[in-house]
Every structure is written in C-alpha cells, then in structure tokens.
C-alpha cells in the first residue's frame, strides 16, 4: 500500500490538512508520512547561516513531533513515519510523490503570484508537478452535510479521465455521491445552436463518467451541465462538498500552464479541499482534464487540446 504524504509547515501547523491526511490514511489502510523540509539558508546579510540552519531544523523537529502527536491522538495505532529533509519544500515533497497514493498540504493563502513565485510556496508548484494526486486543504471538508458529496469538474478536454476515476474511487471509499459537473462558459457574442450545444455537452459528460458505475457498483453518480464561469460554479458546488476534484493539463510548461486558470481559481476560492489529479504517463490522448471548457459542439470526438 502506498503512503499518504503530508507536508508539515513548521511555521504554522495546518490542522485541517493533517486531519484530512490522517483520516485518508486510515481509510486506505496506508502509512502516513509526515515531512518537514528545511529550506537552504543564504548567508547574504552577514549572520551565521549555520546557526540559523540549526534553528530551522530544531523548529522542524518540534513541528514533526507536534504533528505526529496530533494525528495519533485522532487515530490510535495510526502507522506514521517522520522525515526532516534539507531542501526547498516544494522540491522535497515533489520527489516523494513518486509511488505515493496522494499528497496533502495546507494553503498559506498567498496571492496568486506569490503562491507560484515565492521561495516558500508549496501548494501550486506541488499540485503542478507531483506524480500523484495532490490535496490542497484551504478549508475543511463539509462533513456535516446530510448526504456526503464529491464534486469532479469535467470539460471534455484532454486530461480528465484520471480525475473522474480518482473522484469515483474517492466517493466510493467515503460512501459519498459523485457529482460530475460540466460548466459551459457563456460566449461574449451569441453563436451556434444553444439547444444542440447543450445536448452535445450532456452526451460528452455522460461518456466521461460512463465507466464509474461498472467499477463502483455502490456509487451514485449525478451529472450537471450548467452555464457560467467554471471557477464560480465549481466554487458554488464546493460549499457542500467533501472535496472538488480537477485534472491537471500535463507535464510541459511552467506551473501556471500545467494547472490552468480554473484550478488556480479553485485553489484560492473553493470552500473545501481541492484535489488535483495528474494524467498518468500511460493515459496518452484518451485522458481528459478538468480545466476551462475548451471543446466545441461536434459530430466526431473533440480534437485534443493542450
């Protein structure tokens, strides 16, 4: 069984992220790996860099001990392992996603530019480059909702079958409903047949989730096609969800290009954890990803988009 990986921020423990990671490890019967990365210290200001590095390591050790106490307090007997590693946090965690079941991190609520470019940013760079699904816990999941719900964004573009498959498995694991949502943005200028376009997208959405019931007979799947902005509508759906699942565009380009504007928007606005799922290496052109709607009404399969 693969590990559930949890990034621990020594500056401020993200309790919702640790709770999410611990619960998920128990649910999967997996080991929980708690990791603190100690970033390199640059001796540019004339202070003792080695002393500062030692203080960072001491703080990291304390954070790991506190995190381990917290998760073991939640789940007696939870199998945990801790790591204190020198290196940039996003890089350290990225390297440990190979073979992991998923990675869980909190959000520092940075602005969009700072989240991508600052040295200490983790959520966006990790979600963009990890080899496994990444859970960014900015807000706790909504466990008080009477009927538990997992939301997955679908748009018929090139990488989303992995996201749908992950969302279906997660919903089945949690005995939750799966809501597959296709958000069809309104054009600046009206064009085409609205009725035909709506029917086309409903057909594509049905194709995207067609195998879920076969793989998970216990799963209740709902489908919605709606007009609006993908970030707005998926954020609205997140208000009663355990998580929102979206796909990642692939492996080329910088972090922002890999995630796309919809995922970026959800990371900053969703009212529940956001799970970003990469396209498996073997998926090729048959995958789909859940970013903005980039398809057109068609009579044949939509052309792949990057």
Report what the structure shows.
The structure is a single chain. This protein is α/β, with parallel strands linked by helices and 306 residues long. Helix content is 38%, strand content 19%. The chain has a ten-stranded mixed sheet with strand order 3-2-1-4-5-10-9-6-7-8, sandwiched between helices. Strand 9 (243-247), helix 10 and strand 10 (274-277) form a beta-alpha-beta unit. Mean pLDDT is 82; it is low at 110-119, 251-257 and 282-306.
Secondary-structure map:
Elements: E1 4-7, H1 15-28, E2 32-38, H2 49-74, E3 80-86, H3 89-95, E4 102-106, H4 112-117, H5 123-129, E5 133-137, E6 149-153, H6 161-173, E7 177-184, H7 194-208, H8 212-215, E8 221-227, H9 230-237, E9 243-247, H10 255-269, E10 274-277
Parallel strand pairs: 1-2, 1-4, 2-3, 4-5, 6-7, 6-9, 7-8, 9-10
Antiparallel strand pairs: 5-10
Helix pairs in contact: 1-2, 3-5, 5-10, 9-10
Summarize the structure in short.
This protein is of the alpha/beta class and 306 residues long. It contains 10 helices and 10 strands.
């Amino acid at each position: 069984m693969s590990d559930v990986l949890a990034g621990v921020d020594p500056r401020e423990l993200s309790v919702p992220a640790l709770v999410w990671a611990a619960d998920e490890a128990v649910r999967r019967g997996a080991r929980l790996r708690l990791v603190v990365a100690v970033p390199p210290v640059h001796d540019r200001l004339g202070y003792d860099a080695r002393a500062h590095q030692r203080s960072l390591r001491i703080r990291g050790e304390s954070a790991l001990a506190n995190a381990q106490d917290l998760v073991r307090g939640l789940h007696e007997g939870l199998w945990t392992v801790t790591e204190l590693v020198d290196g940039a946090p996003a890089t350290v965690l990225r390297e440990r996603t190979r073979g992991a079941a998923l990675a869980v991190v909190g959000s520092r609520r940075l602005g969009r530019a700072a989240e991508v470019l600052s040295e200490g940013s983790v959520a966006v760079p990790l979600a963009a480059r990890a080899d496994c699904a990444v859970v960014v816990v900015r807000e706790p999941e909504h466990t008080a909702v009477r009927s538990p719900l997992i939301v997955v964004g679908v748009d018929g573009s090139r990488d989303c079958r992995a996201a749908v498959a992950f969302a279906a498995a997660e919903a089945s694991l949690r005995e939750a409903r799966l809501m597959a949502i296709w958000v069809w943005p309104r054009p600046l200028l009206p064009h085409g047949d609205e009725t035909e376009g709506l029917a086309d997208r409903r057909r594509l959405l049905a194709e995207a989730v067609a195998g879920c019931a076969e793989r998970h007979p216990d799963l209740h799947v709902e489908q919605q096609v709606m007009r609006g902005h993908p970030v707005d509508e998926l954020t609205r759906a997140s208000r009663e969800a355990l998580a929102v699942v979206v796909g990642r565009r692939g492996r080329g380009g910088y972090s922002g290009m890999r995630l796309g504007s919809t995922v970026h928007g959800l990371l900053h606005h969703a009212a529940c954890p956001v799970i970003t799922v990469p396209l498996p290496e073997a998926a090729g052109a048959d995958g789909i990803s859940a970013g903005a709607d980039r398809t057109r009404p068609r009579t044949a399969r939509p052309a792949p988009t990057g």
